[in-house]
């Protein structure tokens, strides 16, 4: 029988800022990005009590909370803290998955007995986080990831809860489906149209009814309502085994329409993606361009290459071909670049001298940037964007191919 723990940091970005600046403690704080179009990334619990919410635009947030203290986020602080937190988690189990910069799953099935059981591990981790970092965490425990996440959600902030296997059905019986991880408001509305308003009702609905309405997703919904989840805790040292793609996207400081400016951002994104691919020995045979308009309409276009690559300018060239084939209808809000159909590089020498010179140039640039700091040497065209948006990718990990730049 598995025991999974989810550690969910409370108002993480705001808490880190309050801890690093004592003048912010006890005050309503909103952490924002560096761009002109900024929204609230995280609000402290003092700000939340006054109605400030994540995703709210800054004008609205200040209107409902005039005393709001606004802090531009510092991603280095948050990723550094996350990396140090992982070192703490590894004291209790080798099976640690950093799910996001402020959430981590731990599989303590084989180690809980060494530390007095799951509840005692939860207490110790909360205590250590408070002692070492001065911030609070909520800890949820359950027989799988789904229930551990639910236990944390039901006990925030600064909570500690263990939902044992025999308690799952009772906890879920009257719970609205949208409180389960992975069921959104729109899906909950579809379920209500079928007369399904609780997880208990969803669990008792014949799978044929759900399958006829939602397809194969219907079977998954029923399993979720029964508290079943077979997904493993994916330890981060294993994450590169099944990498499908490497990508990076950014919301731009302001909407852009000029093609040269768009291409400057695309070169920056191509460089970030290819740097990570080279560091972990991957090359991709497909490139994908993602575009989001001012209206939030989002689409992607893809191109297959003749051979796999992690060369920045080859990827950038393919991305530019995709862009040149588009007729942009609106100013662009977000851009993304990814490479897929990944293959491990063999390490064999290039066939042609020019290819070998290119490979050695990229290796030299990478070594300099790793030694003296990322972006110590950059392609000149990437200097055109005057401000680089500082958003942490949802796929960020403390190490491995998903460690963003």
Describe this protein's structure.
With 405 residues, the protein is α+β, with helices and mostly antiparallel strands. The protein has three domains: 1-163, Reverse transcriptase/Diguanylate cyclase domain (Alpha-Beta Plaits, 2-Layer Sandwich); 168-225, Orthogonal Bundle (DNA polymerase, domain 1); 239-383, Dna Ligase, domain 1, CATH 3.30.1490.100. It contains 14 helices and twelve strands. It has helices at residues 12-20, 45-48, 58-64, 75-89, 118-133, 145-155, 168-173, 185-193, 199-204, 207-214, 216-225, 259-279, 312-324, 353-372; strands at residues 4-9, 29-32, 40-43, 69-72, 96-100, 103-107, 137-142, 160-162, 245-256, 282-293, 298-309, 332-344. The strands form three sheets. The chain has a five-stranded mixed beta sheet with strand order 5-6-1-7-8. A four-stranded antiparallel beta sheet has the order 9-12-10-11, with helices on one face.
